[in-house]
Amino acid sequence: MKQYQHPTIDQITLTGVLHALSDPVRLNFVQCLANLMCEQPCGSIPTPVAKSTMSHHLRVLREAGIVYIRTEGTQSLTSLRLDELSTKFPGLLESVLKAALEESAADPAK
Amino acid sequence: MKQYQHPTIDQITLTGVLHALSDPVRLNFVQCLANLMCEQPCGSIPTPVAKSTMSHHLRVLREAGIVYIRTEGTQSLTSLRLDELSTKFPGLLESVLKAALEESAADPAK
DNA sequence: GTATTTGTTCTATAAACGCCGAACAATGAT
DNA sequence: ATCATTGTTCGGCGTTTATAGAACAAATAC
């Protein structure tokens, strides 16, 4: 397909990260990514939105520095930039993911 | 003046909190609030926006469950709901504030 | 009473956002 | 070459957002 541009660590901003994670669809996707612990094609994670919408969300996550995307064949493999984010903002993504987990556990609906 | 409505702990959502903190003006205000360690009138914290805009931002922070606002005389006193947020999302606000501090330390401009 | 202070609400505007379908691109399979 | 798979990009639509100024409300000071 094509190659993607990713921000370097010092280009990542806190507000950018928070904004990217503040959308339910994106947060849920990041949560799945963290659970699976390995890079995933976009299609392997179920989403409630159209694929063009998901492409937009992945772009936001990528430009915020949260995920790394590479292409292999026809699919684009997405992985969390966990190490780099932990370097830039220690504990941040961890506590967000923990909070997301607890919230979804407390609310069995949806 | 008037009294405000605040969400209960279980009405607070993670995406709501993240969204509220993803705006630079709001995040900066929350940072100041955390540093001062006590409730503050809105006007005591310098902001780059008009007071009507700040009123809007405070409303967002209040409705997200991040701040508590009460009125005394003509001024409205704002305080962080740190304890309640720590109960709902342990470590979250702490790591966001730590990240904000480190980011502003790394970038002496602005 | 009038004036001052502090903040809210209203109205408007411009930008950003989330969403989708259609068209397109690139790879892989038949 | 044709078809299927996997995503991206584009155009558009409706909603939300950040912003500010003007008008308003309430408490305080004079």
Can you tag this structure with a few keywords?
110 residues, alpha+beta, Arc Repressor Mutant, subunit A, 3 strands, DNA-binding, homodimer
Write the layout of secondary structure elements.
2 copies of one chain form a homodimer.
Chain A lengths: L13 H8 L2 H13 L3 E2 L9 H13 L3 E6 L2 E6 L1 H7 L3 H15 L4
The structure holds a DNA duplex (30 and 30 nucleotides).
Quick synopsis:
The structure is a homodimer of 110-residue chains. With 110 residues, chain A is of the alpha+beta class.
Structure in words:
The structure is a homodimer of 110-residue chains. Chain A is α+β, with helices and mostly antiparallel strands. The first copy, chain A, has a single domain, classed as Orthogonal Bundle (Arc Repressor Mutant, subunit A). The first copy, chain A, has five helices and three strands, in the order H-H-E-H-E-E-H-H. Chain A has helices at residues 14-21, 24-36, 51-63, 82-88, 92-106, and strands at residues 40-41, 67-72, 75-80. The first copy, chain A, has a three-stranded antiparallel beta sheet with strand order 1-3-2. The radius of gyration of chain A is 14 Å and the shape is globular. Chains A and B meet through helix 1 and helix 5 of A and helix 1 and helix 5 of B.
Rounded to an integer in angstroms, the radius of gyration calculated over CA atoms of chain A is: 14 Å
The greatest interface here is: A-B, 25 and 25 residues
Task: Write down the CATH class of chain A.
Answer: Mainly Alpha
The tally of helices of chain A reads: 5
Helical fraction of chain A:
40-55%
